[in-house]
Amino acid sequence: MSLRTHRCAAQREARATGLRATGLRASELPACFPLTFPPAHRLLHALTRALLPEGRCRLCALPSRAPLCSACQCAYGLPGLRRCPRCASLLPDAAARCGACALHPPAHVRAMAWGDYVPPLDRLIASVKFGGDAALARWLGGLLAQRLPPAWSPLPHPPPLVVPVPLSMQRLRQRGYNQAWEIARGLAAALQWPCDCQRLLRVRDGPAQSSLPLARRAANLRGAFVAHALPRACTVLLVDDVMTSGSTAEHACRALLRGGAREVAVAVVLRTPAPR
Prior knowledge:
This protein is of the alpha/beta class. The protein folds into two domains: 48-77, no CATH class; 84-271, Rossmann fold, CATH 3.40.50. The protein has helices at residues 3-22, 40-51, 70-76, 99-103, 122-129, 134-151, 169-175, 179-191, 214-220, 247-258, and strands spanning 110-116, 161-164, 200-202, 225-227, 235-243, 263-271. A four-stranded parallel beta sheet has the order 1-6-5-2, with helices on both faces. The longest helix has 20 residues, at 3-22. It starts with a helix and ends in a 5-residue tail after the last strand. The model has no long low-confidence stretch (mean pLDDT 83).
């Protein structure tokens, strides 16, 4: 018996077995009813895929459907940590705001962060910023959105306009995409807020902020941002991946206020802890 003949005989036997399992004649079955049933190993594979996650956590490598497993989200994104409401830096237990914001209040009225820019969370930002992982950036935006309602209460009405910190055209061509825009898209989609990457533009390029000492970062951004066609007296939520010195957020917020925004809040995925 040839292989082809053996295969046809096996298919006929499987069809007959499926028909006998129903207790009906073929003419009594609906046209869409399968007369052959999947083998046991296919059913087991489908059940395994339904019950067990296919991916792994980016931090601990345990099985996880999300980029971060629930255990790592709880361990590193502690919502109970007290942060300065103006700059999102960690606070001592008794302080209402940090000393720097008490002496020199920033241009934005509020700042929120999901976690601190420390190992191993810094690997997430490296994947987003230098690894081209736009899907991870959007997921982090949705994660950041979970932190906003308790940190920004009551939420403004109408909803704020979500605006990402822009890249210069040269940096955008080098990197291929703006990670802050992808984070902003994920956040805005989770909260159903308007989002626009054309309202704030970077018109002057300079060295990367991460390559400069803290004392030179403010001067590097002077005149770098221009706000364009903002809705009249709107509230803006400025979104970025990391806040370190706050210079980028400060100059971007000043440009938004000059462009007609009523007030600006800032949301970042990670906040660099203050030096001790």
